[in-house]
Specification:
Elements (H helix, E strand, L loop, with lengths): L1 E6 L4 H5 L1 E2 L3 H12 L3 E6 L5 H11 L3 E5 L6 H14 L4 E5 L1 H5 L1 H8 L5 E3 L3 H14 L10 E3 L2 E2 L26 E2 L5 E4 L2 E3 L9 H4 L4 E3 L2 H9 L5 E4 L8 H14 L4 E6 L1 H6 L1 H9 L2 E9 L3 H7 L5 H14 L2 E8 L5 H13 L3 E6 L7 H5 L25 H18 L3 H16 L4 H7 L1 H4 L2 H8 L13 H6 L20 H7 L3
Parallel strand pairs: 1-3, 1-4, 4-5, 5-6, 10-13, 13-14, 14-15, 15-16, 16-17
Antiparallel strand pairs: 2-9, 6-7, 7-8, 11-12
Helix pairs in contact: 2-7, 9-10, 10-12, 15-17
Bound molecules: cobalamin and iron/sulfur cluster.
Length: about 500
């Protein structure tokens, strides 16, 4: 078949701070290519809709597969699918990815016949067999694992049997130098492990992967790393280095190989403290930036998000990261219920810590436990606003005042890092990048005020809504389901795995 794999356009975040290569889609596309299909990939984060339409018109693919990891991209994907079906009525259109897996039926109904199926779960596990079925007998697709189609739904999707046998089709991207994260410009992405053994209430990583946690071998990782030309590398794992021996083995293999890169990773405070030697070692050959999901600066907030990390551990982890000389970014979740005093307290706290602080907004997503337990009614069901940068629950303050406080907090934090000393450092880094022809970081900084702007945020809420998110299940039904994670029983995409004993101990902080 002629198969076109499509990543949708940028979100608010991507315009300023980072834009990363669509690694998941590359893995799925590569599986199809290795099975002998003619494959192309277009990433609309860095290309235009006209480029997409011209591939459709000239190459005329007969299989088009969209990646929908982010809810905010749903309207764009649905419109592209409909427009494609109108010009290529015989083509087969499929959607996969993280968010698509939780709202499969709704996507089909928004598509009004323009979407043939949603393939839930890990795409590389099912894409090749799905393409075979489409080729042979389209009527049979509804029996296929992970498929949701207009006339039926197959059994749950299967997990990939061996992650080491998968490869990302990195050469399929047409503009590799457009991906960056801060001053790691350009940057590539890489995967060391998949899944997460924890179960935070606001997150859908664990419900997607059925609470499984799998490792990729150091040999395979080294082979992948050796194929990467970019000097910056973003490690996409939800929580890096949960198993210290794995982190050390990868590190030793890299150090031996002589490959020099600068790395960015995300982890948890308790993992950082438990595996200090791994992070210390990684610092010695290129770990430069780390993201810690702190989420709240009070015990009550941490309990609500079920982070299973006491506040004191978070502060201890920050101290340790500082001592290593790693640049740390942390995330705090703002609640729409916050008033001006709460914002002022957070602003003060953020100014006192040297880290880069990112503020996101508490957003119940389908697939998370918050989606079924949140008692407040959504104030909007516009997919485009579900990007954790917009308030989708009722705000205690008038909406304009909530955004004014939030933007002011973000601006204070932005300025904190653009004081004269940092500005000098950043401008010398920026100059080096510009001299190498890399403009992503500098352009992002220049777009800050235009992107994070009160008028724009309010205007986003005033847009006509053509596609609405489904309603969360009624609170009455969830109350009957019982306490804790049992409420999440129906949320899983991949069937839940027995949590291995070691990981259960990790969660309990043993
Ligand atoms: C790395 C990452 C990022 C990277 C971007 C990666 C990228 N360019 O795609 C960064 C840091 C930029 C990022 C940012 C954000 N992210 Co993010 N991110 C992740 C993370 C941790 C891992 C994704 C990943 O690369 N996994 C590894 C690859 C191999 O898997 P994958 O992309 O999921 O692809 C697999 C399947 O989804 C599927 N698949 C994917 N595409 C397709 C297509 C087809 C046709 C098929 C059949 C299958 C398929 O098969 C793939 C291979 O198995 C996930 C959590 C998670 N574990 O999924 C959150 C996650 C996806 N992010 C999330 C969010 C909310 C965001 C942000 C909005 C906010 C934020 N600060 O985190 C921003 C906005 C991003 C933007 N586009 O502007 C949420 C999504 C929630 C939602 N329902 O929309 C997640 C689930 C985390 C969470 N807390 O729940 N993110
Ligand atoms: S530790 Fe991170 S990835 Fe795991 S469930 Fe919590 S927020 Fe999600």
């Amino acid at each position: 078949m002629r198969a076109l794999f499509v990543h949708p356009g940028p979100l608010l975040y991507t315009r300023v701070f980072l834009r990363l290569e669509p690694l998941g889609l590359e893995v799925v596309a590569e599986a199809a290519r290795r099975a002998g299909h003619a494959v192309r990939l277009i990433d609309l984060q860095v290309e235009e809709h006209e480029d997409y339409h011209s591939i459709i018109a000239q190459w005329r693919p007969n299989f088009i597969a969209f990646s929908c990891n982010y809810l905010a991209n749903v309207p764009e994907i649905v419109d592209l699918a409909k427009a494609t079906k109108a010009v290529l009525p015989g083509s087969f259109i499929c959607i996969g990815g993280h968010s698509a897996s939780f709202i499969a039926r709704d996507l089909l109904s928004h598509g009004e016949g323009g979407i043939d199926c949603v393939l839930k779960g890990e795409g590389e596990a099912g894409i090749v067999a799905l393409m075979e079925v489409v080729n042979r007998d389209r009527a049979a697709i509804a029996e296929f694992p992970g498929v949701v189609a207009a006339d039926g739904e197959g059994p749950p999707p299967r997990l990939v049997e061996d992650l080491n046998s998968q490869r990302p089709g990195r050469d399929l991207l047409r503009h590799r130098r457009k991906y960056f994260i801060g001053i790691l410009d350009p940057a590539a992405s890489i995967e060391f492990s998949r899944g997460c053994p924890w179960d935070c209430s606001f997150c859908s990583a664990w419900t997607f992967y059925g609470r499984s946690y799998r490792l990729i071998s150091p040999e395979r990782i080294l082979e992948d790393l050796a194929s990467i030309r970019e000097p910056g590398v973003f490690i996409v794992d939800d929580v890096a280095f949960i198993h210290p021996e794995h982190g050390l083995a990868i590190g030793e293999a890299i150090a031996r190989s002589g490959i020099r890169k600068k790395y960015y990773l995300e982890t948890r405070s308790d993992v950082l403290l438990r595996n200090k030697e791994v992070f210390q070692f990684w610092k010695s050959f290129g770990l430069e930036y780390m993201f810690l999901g702190i989420e709240a600066i009070d015990e009550e907030g941490l309990r609500k998000f079920r982070k299973r990390v006491p506040l004191s551990k978070n502060f201890e982890a920050l101290e340790f990261a500082r001592s290593l000389g790693i640049q740390v970014a942390i995330n705090i979740i703002a609640d729409p219920d916050w008033d001006q005093d709460r914002f002022a307290t957070i602003r003060q706290w953020c100014l006192e810590v040297p880290e880069i602080v990112n503020i996101s907004i508490n957003t119940p997503y389908p697939g998370t436990e918050s989606w079924v337990t949140e008692a407040r009614q959504l104030s909007t069901r516009d997919y485009r606003l579900f990007d954790i940068q917009h308030a989708v629950l009722p705000t205690r303050l008038p909406l304009w005042l909530f955004y004014r406080e939030l933007l002011e907090t973000q601006r204070v934090l932005f300025r904190k890092h653009f004081n004269w000393r940092n500005a000098l450092l950043a401008s010398s880094e920026a100059l080096k990048l510009l001299m190498r022809g890399q403009t992503n970081f500098v352009r992002g900084m220049m777009l800050y005020n235009q992107t994070y702007n009160l008028e724009k945020m309010l205007n986003d809420h005033a847009q006509p809504v053509r596609y609405e998110l489904p309603l969360p299940p009624s609170n009455a039904r969830t109350a009957a389901a019982g306490p804790g994670t049992r409420k999440a029983a129906n949320l899983y995409v991949h069937r839940p795995h027995q949590t291995p004993r070691a990981d259960a101990q990790l969660q309990a902080g043993l």
